[in-house]
Design brief:
Elements lengths: L3 H20 L25 H16 L9
Length: 73
């Protein structure tokens, strides 16, 4: 039974000395650069369509508010 203690110490020292070998090397990990995709711009007419429609609606409202549609007697 006296041989178990030195054998256990030998096994423990070998396992502790090989643990850093399995942990990985000293080299930096290779990371691929992230690809950034720029979104394409929307149609160029999108910036003035809404204000143009608002202007048309206001012009139609202003032209129809001048008089009543029912003639007075």
């Amino acid at each position: 039974m006296n041989y178990l203690k030195p054998a256990a110490v030998a096994v423990a020292s070998i396992s502790m000395s090989t643990a850093p070998l399995h942990a990985g090397g000293v080299a930096q990990p290779l990371m691929e650069p992230e690809v950034i995709v720029a979104e394409s711009a929307a149609a160029s007419s999108g910036g003035f369509v809404v204000p143009l429609l608002l202007l048309v609606i206001l012009a139609a409202a202003a032209s129809s508010s001048g008089g009543s549609s029912v003639p007075r007697e």
